[in-house]
Design a protein that fits this description.
- With 361 residues, the chain is α/β, with parallel strands linked by helices.
- Helix content is 30%, strand content 21%.
- It contains 9 helices and 14 strands.
- An 8-stranded mixed beta sheet has the order 8-9-10-7-11-12-13-14, with helices on one face.
- Helix 3 runs parallel beside helix 4 and helix 7 crosses helix 9.
- The chain is elongated, with a radius of gyration of 24 Å.
Length: 361
């Protein structure tokens, strides 16, 4: 098994707390050989942890010839220029989310990747989370019937005052938290066409000028309605998922899910009637029947398939990198493609078009 050599640009909450933590325990799949970060404490920590070379700037990495992968964990507003620079030089690049501000920027990155023949990947690891895989598995099984609506809520109550609540740094709930549930939502929406989008944004508890409340509705012909909330002013968050289908439904969080459904062949036969319903003694009646419900339950802690890397975030990061390793080392196709993320950015761009917020921070 070939060990792939990796450089990480940035050792902030993503570069260190997510990517760095994975690489510490990834076995022989990847080896961090270089880290770039302007802060000395972070460079010293990387040297101690990975026994790697460190740089105050990412540009010297462009001269290296031993890198199999460059992980771009710079602040959001640098994702496009840094990724484009490395792609044009022929490096394989994994870029953090949000990928870009608009579709035009995504197209530039896709073109750069095609011209150089390098792999261009986007870190949408929540596609591989255990809870989402369970939701998709149950929906795909058909037991819930035709899916009418899928409600997704990444809600909580919080105030924020860092750079990720500032518009000029590509901040805000939709670009910061949003790529995770939106990527999942578009997978469940299906196809590759652009959905019809309705969005409302607000600034509630933020200290910055970017949105911290998002209500996003997506619809399309023969597609389920997607109702997505990303709110920082929800004091009573309920479910991450609530799925409504013609034969049943599903609800739950990242930790556990439950679903109940009927089997049409087990239901009493009925036919449409036009006359008023009444009881045996002639009194007014309401439609009512006894249905047989089948109920199932799932907990992430009981999921044998997730046991190799227990914990929601660790598990989905490991699964993403295992997928990326297969692409880089074995030539397998990416499961999260730039074209899929292009549609995500198109939806985000449309949301911002419908909700122009004043810029003051």
């Amino acid at each position: 098994m070939k060990t792939l050599k990796v450089a990480i640009i940035g050792q902030g909450r993503s570069g260190w707390s997510i990517h760095g933590q994975y690489f510490k325990d990834c076995g022989d799949l990847f080896q961090v050989v270089a880290v770039a970060d302007p802060l000395e404490k972070r460079r010293l920590n990387a040297e101690k942890t990975f026994n790697c070379q460190t740089y105050t700037d990412y540009k010297p990495l462009l001269e290296r010839t031993d890198l199999d992968l460059v992980v771009n964990s710079t602040p959001s507003y640098l994702h496009v220029p840094v990724t484009e620079l490395f792609l044009k030089k022929g490096f394989n690049v994994l870029c953090e989310k949000p990928l870009a501000k608009n579709v035009q920027e995504v197209d530039r990155l896709i073109a750069a990747s095609r011209e150089s023949g390098s792999v261009f990947a986007i870190f949408q690891q929540s596609r591989f989370s255990a809870y989402f895989r369970k939701v998709k598995q149950v929906i795909d099984s058909g037991v819930l019937g035709r899916i009418v609506q899928i409600s997704i809520a990444f809600n909580g109550f919080a105030r924020r005052w860092d750079w990720q609540c500032i518009q000029r740094f590509n901040g805000g709930n939709l670009r910061n938290t949003g790529p995770h549930p939106l990527d999942q939502a578009l997978q469940l929406f299906g196809g590759d066409d652009m959905p019809e989008v309705f969005c409302r944004m607000d600034r509630a508890n933020t200290f910055g000028d970017a949105e911290d409340y998002v209500k996003l509705i997506m619809t399309g012909k023969n597609r389920p309605l997607i109702d997505l909330e990303i709110s920082s002013c929800c004091a009573y968050p309920c479910f991450t998922y609530n799925v409504q289908g013609t034969c049943g439904g599903m609800k739950g969080s990242m930790d556990e899910m439950e679903w109940r459904y009927i089997v049409p062949s087990e239901c009493p036969p009925q036919k449409l009637v036009y006359e008023p319903l009444e009881t045996a003694d002639g009194l007014p009646a309401y439609c009512g029947e006894a249905l047989t419900w089948h109920e199932e339950h799932w907990k992430v802690s009981d999921d044998v398939d997730s046991a190799e890397s227990f914990g929601t975030f660790a598990n989905m990061t490991a699964r993403y990198y295992q997928m990326l390793y297969r692409t880089l080392a074995e030539g397998a196709p990416l499961e999260v493609t730039p074209q899929q993320i292009r549609r995500q950015i198109a939806v985000i761009e449309e949301c911002h078009r419908q909700n122009p917020l004043s810029v003051w921070a």
